[in-house]
Amino acid sequence: MVVKLIELLGTSSKSWENAVELAVNKAGESIKNIHAVDVLGFTAKIENGKISEYRANVKIAFVVE
Fold this sequence. Notes:
The chain has 65 residues and is an alpha+beta fold. It is built from one helix and three strands; from the N terminus they run βαββ. It has one helix at residues 16-28, and strands at 2-12, 34-47, 50-64. A three-stranded antiparallel β-sheet has the order 1-3-2. The longest helix has 13 residues, at 16-28.
């Protein structure tokens, strides 16, 4: 079995958890056999003193057929 890793940045206006989910869902549109996600870190964009965008840096692991 061969597993490939890709690194993605998910973004959301709702939460860091939602940013991770959106990254996995978007990857799933073109990648089959997603096996795992590793959250590398969280950041956020600030506008007018408030969080305007949540960002999650993730690695997606999938099996190569």
